[in-house]
From TrEMBL:
CDD domains for the chain: Peptidases_S8_Subtilisin_like_2
Occurrences of domain Peptidase S8/S53 (ranges): 269-536
Protein name per the record: S8 family peptidase
One Pfam family it belongs to: Peptidase_S8
InterPro entries, per the entry: Peptidase_S8/S53_dom (IPR000209), Peptidase_S8/S53_dom_sf (IPR036852), Y4bN_pept_dom (IPR034074)
Organism of provenance: Pseudoalteromonas rhizosphaerae
Amino acid sequence: MKNFIIGYGESLTTDVKIKSGSGPKAHPYSFAEARAKLVSDLQNVIEDVDAKQPNQCSNGEIVVKFIQHPSYLAKSYYPSQLFKKFGIKDLGSRSVKVKPRKWAVKKHPVEGLASCIFVSGTRSKFEAMLNTVAHEHLPDVTQKLIRSIEQVSSFSAHEKVKAIDESSKTLRLEVVLHAEATDRPVFQSFTEYAETLGGVVDWQRAKNVGGLTFLPVEISKGLESELAEFSHVRALRSVPKLRFNRPDAIRTTLKESFSLPKYEPLNNKFKVCILDGGIGSENVIKDWIHEHIPVCVQSSHPSLLAHGGEVCSTYLFGPFDPETKSFKAPYTNVDIVRVLSADDRDPDLFDVLTRIENVLKEKKYKYINLSLGPRLPIDDDDVHVWTSVIDSLLQDGHCLATVATGNDGELEGEDGRIQPPSDMVNCFSVGSSTTDNIDWERAPYSCRGPGRSPGIVKPDGLMFGGSDGELFKVYSPLTHSIVGTQGTSYAAPYALRVAAGIDAITDFDLSPAAVRALMVHHAERGEQDIHDVGWGKLPNSPEAVIECKDDEAIIVYQGTLERSQHLRIPIPVPEGINCKWVHLKATFCFNAVVDPEHPLHYTRSGLVVTFRANKGKVKEGAEHANTSDFFSLGGLYETEEELRDDAHKWETCISRKRRFQRETLSSPVFDVKYHAREKGGDPEGLNDPLHYSLILSIRAEGEKETYNKVLQQNQTLEAVKVTNRVRV
């Protein structure tokens, strides 16, 4: 008889009260040093304001950069009170590498990661700040904030111009403005300024996310730097090409005999959607598929239908099995929404994004797949419009989205990094492995990590997507044949097939975050580089995820945490087990509210997880007594300065396994605290509870009764019931 994963772990948890505290902060600069530098910098900024053309500003405001010393990365040192004091508007922030004038500690890097904060204000406001800082006595709290500032300067046009396509006389730009949806004066001033340069601003396609507005602009080549002189422009780049297939993939129609599964009606308890190029009405698998064609999509193309059909087919059947000459049966039906049209210009990424947005806003689907996106690598210092828009629509946790990472992994350096929107923290980003066998590697074309911090572990994992040595053999509905191909476009829906399959064959209410955690928990990395493969090779069947060995128990915890709540999560290592070693593995996942205008502080929800091997030795009220760092994240970050004090707590997915001698564990627990951080100085939305999921494995090496003893000694836990395909 098989043992299946165990549910209701949250029934074991309890609230605890734990005091926290930290020592005094070491400051690199005295107040006198910091004040002298700030006064000098503000004088230079005011000179730059005087040199600015009036039509390059909105309401006479200029955007200025406040760069903090690398020692002040945590959001608790964010100087929002300083800006409020002088009526200066905080517009957002991003990360920069800086070489400070000096450090407060002996051991330090040459340069460090720092927070660059954008603010806007009129000349008179910066002048008032200059006079106050130079001549007045300031309270201690203001002095401390000033001591955190490394440098203040204007935001120059050349910093804003990103990748520009030089191949055309007319540039199609994606412009990012520091402007909320209600900032009409900024919109009007920018439009008037762009028109003086002969530019055309397409407001109908504009996207507002938080404090940023993304919009398409057409302008003559050579005038992009002039356009970037507008003060509220944050960034501009050429609208990238859309990726929905591997550009130079080997693609072969195979003369293989094959059989498709016999159609049987499926009883879906949830809905699944593929957002792609459509499938067309004439195909033999239409019983499993329902196609939606938005009214704005008037035309298609065989290449779009081929891609959409093959992505659907991968989700339904997985890859062709050459031994049985057949495909596996689907776990669910699937909807496909056409988001690509042959009429899209170049193609128009804003139109495609709007169609995706419209589907996600309906919140009909528990699972979706995106095997397309902009073809460009991620920037650490800014968040792309696709990432911003879709991440904010997924932040409530209603949906698990598998997203292909892109197929430019063979490019050098940064160009080979994962592509938007697979850098979202609220999605499940999937790269390709060379094979489904044990000797797998990252497929050379599969885009590499890391993501930005937070979201450093990207891709989330790899799935077989084909390679030169072993093509991905997929059923093509368009030609009713088997096609041999490769690409992350196939790895992503293959992963979704497993994820939705876990849900379909279990009689248990699993959240999307819990399913993501189960997939990550079962990923195997071996000796592979985490930046290449993420958490590792993902399981290729739901059955591999839901079964436990005799000497292990896998427990699912799903619960909520209120802001600043401390939750104690027992690790139910059973009494009376006969073994020397106990292996513990834990995977936490949750969805987070995101701030696209603050890439460095992108997630507003975080967990601090403390492991205590012996609950009985905890001193009352002591946060750090008898604790250890179960989730040491040193291996996730390349450099010491990136592993800042609070970096790990803002990751939305953490996973680690450790081995303990049996006698060192006595009622072990995780103590978990939910941290929320403000958006600038705005506490909006921070009182919402955090929905977390934890997958915990307890393996007592060689003890065959581990699973049964966990259930016997914890009466509120139940083994999850499993069905052989839920049929109507």
